[in-house]
Amino acid sequence: MTTVTTKLEIRNWDEKPYRELPDGGKLTRAVVDLAGSSDELPVEGTWQALMYYRPDGTSTYVGQMFLSGTLDGRSGSFVLEGTGSYDGTAARNTSTVVEGSGTGGLAGLSGTAQSVSTHEDYPHWPMTFTYELG
Predict the structure, then answer these.
(1) What is the pLDDT of residue 58?
(2) Residue 37 confidence (pLDDT)
(3) Positive or negative: CA dihedral 42, 44, 50, 53
(4) DSSP code string of 1-70
(5) Contact of 4 with 128, CB cutoff 8 Å
(6) I want to staple 55 with a disulfide (CB 3.0 to 4.6 A). Which of 24, 42, 102, 127 is the partner?
(7) Residue 42: per-residue pLDDT
């Protein structure tokens, strides 16, 4: 297993509510364009998530991230799928490489990604990615 710690650059964050609730909560859909900002993980991608915001502003979400780029000199793409939450201070996310989603030189890729970020991290998305190339 190889572990890489990086920061993905958030190039664009487009989030829109699709249902506003009487108690002040809401459901939203976010589409976020990303780019790798380190030599260890030169990637580009998109994260899409469905989010539920409680009236107090905390949230929970599910999402998928499509990334294409190079790992260990091998080019291809893969999908991460995961869940997360926002407690009012920090967003936490845990994702797993979707089995069979690796293409090209990344076919057979497996692994997990973890992230904890605050508003001070913006416009970056810190990530620790632990993976194995098949």
Answers:
(1) 98
(2) 65
(3) positive
(4) -EEEEEEEEEEEEEEEEEEE-TTS-EEEEEEEEEEE-SSS--EEEEEEEEEEE-TTS-EEEEEEEEEEEE
(5) yes
(6) 24
(7) 76
d(CA 15, CA 59): 14
pTM over 0.70: yes
Q: Give the Cα separation of 47 and 29 in Å (integer).
A: 11
All structural domains of the chain, each given as residue ranges with its CATH number in brackets, are 2-132 (2.40.350.10)
Is 82 within 8 Å of 62 (Cβ atoms)? yes
101, 81 Cβ separation under 8 angstroms: no
8 Å CB contact between 28 and 48: no
User: How remote is the C-alpha of 59 from its chain's centroid?
Assistant: 15
